[in-house]
Design a protein that fits this description.
Layout lengths: L1 H8 L1 H20 L4 H24 L7 E3 L4 E3 L1 H20 L13 H18 L3 H19 L6 H32 L4 H9 L4 H17 L8 H8 L2 H7 L2 H15 L6 H24 L4 H22 L2 H26 L18 H4 L1 H15 L5 H15 L3 H27 L12 H14 L7 H15 L4
Antiparallel strand pairs: 1-2
Helix pairs in contact: 2-3, 2-5, 3-4, 3-5, 4-5, 4-11, 4-12, 4-15, 4-21, 5-6, 5-12, 6-7, 7-9, 7-10, 9-12, 9-13, 10-11, 10-14, 11-15, 12-15, 13-14, 13-19, 14-15, 14-18, 14-19, 15-17, 15-18, 15-20, 15-21, 17-19, 17-20, 18-19
Length: 487
Amino acid sequence: MEFANSFYFTAPEVGLTVSGLILLLVAAFVGQKTTRLITILAVAALFGAAAFTGNLLTNSAFELGADAWGGLYRMDAFGSFAKILIYLATIGCLIVTPKFFEQTAEYRAEYPILMLFGAVGMGMMVSASDLMTLYIGLELSSLSSYVLASFIRSDMRSAEAGLKYFVLGALASGILLYGMSLIYGFTGSTSYIGIRTALEGGVSAGSMFGIVFLLAGLAFKISAVPFHMWTPDVYEGAPTPVTAFFSTAPKVAAIAMTMRMALDPFGGQIEIWQQIVIFAALASIIVGALGAIGQENLKRLLAYSSINNVGFILIGLAAGTEQSASAMLVYLAIYVAMSLGSFVALLMLRDNDGNQLETFADISGLSVTRPALAWCLLALMFSLAGIPPLLGFWGKFVVFQAAVEADMILLAAIGIAASVIGAFYYIKFIKVMFFDKPADVVVAEKSSARWVVLGLCVLFISPLGYLATLKLGEFADRAASALFFII
């Protein structure tokens, strides 16, 4: 019975793994002519996984969660919430991808399959309740990401991005693994429950070093300062659909993994890691804001924007309360919509020859030549800046409110002041698109799939999105409650 329950609780990962293997065989035997069909089937598999995970999240029978595979995997509302965001973000990225590769004819069946296996690894990461499960999921996700970053073989920038990501990712994985070995050596356990129990008796110097190394490795995965150096280069060099993927699904997985690690096995030792998280949060906000100001490449600017937003999310982690964890999840859901929408809008910037346009000069006067696209970008940028009444404001508000209620008023005040800096480069989009002389190089976008994804993202972050905040807040509260539930 326990074996059957384990299969049931891990059904999304098992289903996606089987789907990926079958599609891989189809691609190997039939060839590249099935690429579009494989993409459609991959999207269908992800929809199925999201629907099943949604049932686990909303079913009252699983409110307290359950362990699977002998305590290696934890099925609870927190993991389900994060996985739904991961699957939806991956679906959005897959839908807008095929047209990008029409110019180079380099779209191959391996692309959606790598996305599927990456989603499997990310699902394992957010539901791991043991260091071994976490590391296996992390490496499965990372290996897929390294290949995706260098997917366009004819593009030197893509190859360079993949190599940088691989080298720095391997270094971060080594740091993370060393931290895990220290934790295991000084606590005698790799399970989260065992680690928490061991640390309740006191934290030795070795355990403290292990916690620091673990947080350093996780900081790389979430692009937090001072481990953010790979982000602008990889975001700029990787194919734009891959960059959209990196900024959404893996970001959700890495932040959720960090939350579970900090608040579950290390939840009783908040005073040890809290100062580290506060520094990373403030440094990420400031470096992300200042680094973006001088950027002319739009993808590099959004990379710094990603670092900046990670800083705001980490303010919630620094507070270390159930309310702040819920606020982080709300912010994360809103951020996924804003980031996906922004990169879909960038994908729609093409010239007559089909070349991708990536600079401010290219979107000069866009409101005159392509008004619908310009207004969508305006809404997305204002939302990222946290300007009301767009939903990005609500994400920042709930995080700062949680920090204030946790008596971290100074941290919230500094975060609010620093967010003003970030508003500068978001408003630059508006100035260039609406007040500069039209460059008239962007051709009309004819892909209905891209317009649908962009429209849904803009609709969600518009004032109409506040209608969803009650349900979103309810699910986030349930997920945060599961994270603080101690067996």
